[in-house]
Design a protein that fits this description.
single chain; about 300 residues; Rossmann fold; 13 helices; about 15% strand
Amino acid sequence: MLGKDLLSISDLASEDIKLLLRDAIDIKAGGRISPLVGKTLAIMFEKPSLRTRVSFELAMRQLGGDSIYLSPAEVGLGERESVPDIARVLSRYVDALAVRTFSHQTLKTLAAHAGVPVINALSDLEHPCQALADLLTISEKKHELSGLVLAYIGDGNNVANSLMLACALSGVNFRIASPSGYRVRDEILSLAQGYATASGAGIVLTEEPAEAAGGANVIYTDVWTSMGQEAEAAERRRVFRRYQVNDELMSLAKEDAILMHPLPAHRGEEVSPSILDGPRSVVFDQAENRLHLQKALLAMMLGSLEIPLPGY
């Protein structure tokens, strides 16, 4: 991954994911390291963020590098200045770009014209950093990824797209229950099915939450209405009302199944408070692991990993 872009989970091979998870576990165990002294990351967002911005800024700081945050008003992607020109200018200043944007095409255009790596910090198509941190969390809780069953309940959105690809590459059986018209993208499904064939994972698409949740090791959900979809909120609440993750649905999963959610959550909509705030929830471990995974990713893309751990 040195010097390469990460726009999609499909930019990674299964071995890349294994290395990232291993490095993230080592980083988490070893505390602060400094392999990126003198490196600078530009964090460029069209959408607001809590976890993504803080985790990227802290990741660079704890790796010994620097970051600079560029707000929508400061940059004006494609408005104040063309996307190719922004990519060319920033490439003269910084060592990488982490970009959170409404359109995945904007990321592709930036990457095509930038002379430095571009990281997808969220687009309408994918959220790869979230999915990788999710795998890190699952591996911590379950110790082995291959053969597990993850049931995703809800909208086939950017998180679902990336998570399905990541599971397929890692040998995790992926089930997704979504209403008709809200399934994962066909092109993402086709890619994931190819990866699943190679890894031995299975992929199941259904409209029935109970079918997906039955015997699962992980129950995963996300908001029904994402940023930019506010006008659809009332209709989405109607369509998704039987897709809530609650005590009844969790009872169908394995007894030691965990609940995952990328946050922010709407308690009482996609997930009941009793589950989100209960003992089976690992949502705040997920949030923390964004930092550790992104440190491993930045070290892999921009430098080398040097961890002074006992026994290494």
